[in-house]
Write a structure and sequence with these properties.
Strand content: under 5%
Strand order of the largest sheet: 1-2
Bound molecules: geranylgeranyl diphosphate
Shape: globular
Radius of gyration: 18 Å
């Protein structure tokens, strides 16, 4: 990772972390257990890539960063809700996330379910503070049964073809990543031409993110990932490396990276980190 990208990502991550810490309900708010558990789930690490992408998109479209922080951090609440629910016994039944015990393991299954519900609700409250109805509607659609939830359901159903795999990941992973960059563009009130480029960037970077996630699942240790590694193979899951081999999967991620970089270039802007962030998505090790 280049030094300037590393500096950019750590500065934005610190802003997102501060926003989350300051805007989540205090842990003593009654009933304390749900607020403690929400904070445990959200403040326990994570790359913060979705809010960072949203802020970076807004910045590339000429907006000031500070007013973007609360609505963009809402994406981390949505993402964390999906992780907490995905880890539940009825779904993935996992006990390790972000290097710590999963929320339901610490607080019990009922609180785990309610933490997800509360984070999703809290997210729309934070989004509404930006008073941008188009942005709110777009996020709702992206994580709906025609988006992220639909992808999760298709994943539960399984499949054996590349078409099925792409449907799962375009919905389960890429839609929220695309929604993140589009939110940045909408909050910056950028013209349609830029929104189209942001959508294409998000779709390509989002799918590349998942291909790399599949590769990391088979190449890295649980300690490096902070979550259970090797799960895809253990569960006999349909993944990019399982379907086409690791070398082809890596090649596909690089093709998608090219598309993302081209579209980042269309936006231009004096401060545009979208291309280096797409590169980071493809080259990351966790
Ligand atoms: C609502 C139950 C439910 C599920 C929706 C998003 C999702 C579907 C489930 C979460 C689990 C999963 C494997 C999602 C795919 C996207 C993905 C690779 C998530 C991990 O995101 P990172 O790497 O995690 O950004 P950190 O911990 O860095 O935030």
């Amino acid at each position: 990772m280049s030094e300037s990208l590393e500096t950019y990502l750590s500065a934005r991550r610190a802003q997102v972390d501060r926003t989350l810490e300051e805007n989540l309900p205090a842990p003593t708010t009654p009933p304390a257990v749900i607020h403690e558990a929400m904070r445990y789930a959200v403040l326990g690490g994570g790359k913060r890539i979705r809010p960072i992408l949203a802020v970076a998109a807004a910045e590339a479209c000429g907006a000031a960063v500070e007013p973007m922080l609360v609505p963009c951090a809402a994406l981390e609440l949505i993402h964390t809700y999906s992780l907490v629910h995905d880890d539940l016994p009825a779904l993935d039944n996992d006990d390790l996330r972000r290097g710590r015990k999963t929320t339901h393991v610490v607080y019990g299954e009922a609180i785990g379910i309610l933490v997800g519900d509360a984070l999703l609700t809290e997210a729309f409250s934070w989004l509404s503070r930006a008073e941008n109805a188009d942005g709110i509607a777009m996020i709702a659609e992206a994580i709906s049964s025609r988006g992220m939830i639909g992808g999760q359901v298709a994943d539960l159903e399984g499949g054996s073809t590349l078409e099925q795999l792409e449907f799962i990941h375009r919905n389960k992973t890429a839609k929220l990543i695309t929604a993140a960059v589009l939110l940045g563009g909408l909050l910056a009130r950028t013209p349609e031409k830029n929104l189209t480029a942001l959508r294409r960037y998000g779709e390509a970077a989002g799918l590349a993110f998942q291909i790399v996630d599949d590769l990391l699942d088979q190449e890295q240790s649980s300690a490096a990932l902070g979550k259970t590694a090797g799960k895809d193979a253990a569960q006999g899951k349909l993944t990019y490396p399982a379907l086409m081999g690791a070398a082809q999967a890596r090649k596909r991620a690089e093709e998608l990276l090219k598309v993302a970089v081209e579209n980042a270039g269309i936006i231009g802007g004096p401060v545009n980190y979208l291309a280096p962030i797409a590169r980071y998505i493809c080259e990351r090790r966790s």
